[in-house]
Design goal:
Layout: H1 2-7, H2 10-13, H3 21-46, H4 75-78, E1 89-91, E2 102-106, E3 112-116
Antiparallel strand pairs: 1-2, 2-3
């Protein structure tokens, strides 16, 4: 059993963290930072400081297909998933969603379900 635990990377050990108010505040801070960078870039474009931006051609990061909604947790991560965190809100495990207001719930059957952390009317 220790060999299996040793083969799990530190990133995977810390991957499954409960979703808390502090988690949502961290997401909000990342979103605010990204918006500030975007406004600064737009200001520089408007002033003519930037003519060409490499990001214009980049499609940007893509979601990890192995971590999609409704699919089981990948086998490489199942060993590091603590069973006591099943059916509880967790910080999103896909880095693509790190600056989006989402969280995941992993069922006892180890299926991934993704939810929005925004306020809802109903």
């Amino acid at each position: 059993m220790t060999e299996a635990c040793d083969s799990i990377s530190e990133e995977e050990r810390s991957l499954f963290r409960p979703f808390t108010r502090e988690s949502l505040q961290a997401i909000e801070a990342r979103i605010a930072d990204e918006e500030a960078k975007h406004r600064e870039l737009e200001r520089k474009r408007a002033e003519g400081e930037i003519r060409y931006d490499d990001e214009d051609e980049d499609e940007g990061p893509q979601p990890d297909a192995t971590l999609e909604q409704g699919v089981p947790v990948p086998v490489r991560m199942q060993g590091s998933f603590p069973p006591e965190l099943a059916s509880t809100p967790l910080e999103d495990i896909d880095s693509f969603y790190s600056n989006q207001r989402t969280f995941v719930v992993i069922s006892k059957g180890k299926d991934i379900f993704r939810f929005s952390a925004t306020n809802a009317l109903y």
